[in-house]
Amino acid sequence: MSGKKTVKSKRVERRKKTTSSPKNIFEELGLDQSEELLVRSQLLDKVSVLIHNSGLSQKNVAEKLGIAQSKVSKLVNGRLSEFSTDTLLRYLSILGCNVQIKVSKPRSRAAIFRKKGNIEVHPLPSKRKRATRSVEKTSMS
Fold it and tell me: Which domains are seen in the chain, by residue range?
């Protein structure tokens, strides 16, 4: 095997180095807009995983996303500062994800500004769960 590391081996090494992580590392570091940074990092991770799992070269991914190969490299290497939330959402859509944004209003007018809401990214359903759902749908028909 050559001395080059694959995207997967780099990701595995990065995860091995991480021991226990706080709920929001950006908040722990005292950064402004820590919740938004966390969401953006989760979106970036999802894009990176999808790119890796596609089996395509960075050049092919770049063509499909309409960006330079160097940008794909930054995506898979986790360069968070390079990408806005809007851009990451657009990439997820191009990669075939159904992106949903749900806004829930406060319980009452009196609750406005009393308590801050939250922003979350929910995990993608596993392939196994998706397969089960499609089987259930076809058996109901």
Answer: 7-140 (1.10.260.40)
Q: What is the pLDDT of residue 23?
A: 84
3-state secondary structure of 24: coil
Using CA atoms in the order 67, 71, 77, 83, what is the torsion angle rounded to 10 degrees?
-90
31 DSSP 8-state letter: -
Instruction: Give the predicted TM-score (pTM) of the model.
Output: 0.64
- DSSP for 57-117, written as a single string: -HHHHHHHHTS-HHHHHHHHTT-GGG--HHHHHHHHHHTT----------SSGGGTTTS--
88 and 43 Cβ atoms separated by less than 8 Å: yes
